[in-house]
């Protein structure tokens, strides 16, 4: 499973699931907006939220650091096509 930052306040999983930070920080979030790209069970959604928040807590956003090209392109494409127009 790969997580990437779409921007400073949004992380995206390669599945298309995203979490946007609404309030707080990634180390201490108290307002998030999870968005699923396809229907998920409650347990799948909870696992993705837990994994995503863990990723964001230990991996600071850094605009100068590029992730693996394939993963970045896939996450960017999924994010733009599934959520940008929503």
What does this structure look like?
The structure is a single chain. The protein is an alpha+beta fold and 86 residues long. It has one domain. It has two helices and four strands. The protein has a four-stranded antiparallel beta sheet. It is globular, with a radius of gyration of 12 Å. It starts with a strand and ends with a helix. The model has no long low-confidence stretch (mean pLDDT 82).
Q: Which strand order do you get reading across the main beta sheet?
A: 1-2-3-4
Total number of distinct structural domains: 1
State the helicity in percent bands. 25-40%
Mean pLDDT, to the nearest integer, reads 82
Categorize the overall geometry: globular
The fraction of residues assigned to DSSP E strands is: 25-35%
Order of helices and strands: EEEEHH
Structural class: alpha+beta
* Backbone CA Rg: 12 Å
Number of helices: 2
Total strands: 4
Poorly predicted ranges: none
Main features:
globular; four-stranded antiparallel beta sheet; alpha+beta; 2 helices; 86 residues; 4 strands
């Amino acid at each position: 499973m790969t997580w990437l930052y779409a921007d400073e306040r949004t992380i995206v999983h390669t599945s298309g699931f995203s979490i946007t930070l609404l309030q707080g920080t990634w180390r201490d979030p108290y307002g998030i907006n999870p968005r699923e790209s396809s229907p998920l069970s409650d347990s799948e959604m909870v696992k993705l939220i837990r994994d995503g928040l863990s990723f964001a807590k230990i991996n600071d956003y850094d605009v100068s650091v590029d992730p693996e090209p394939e993963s970045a392109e896939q996450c960017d494409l999924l994010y733009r096509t599934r959520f940008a127009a929503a």
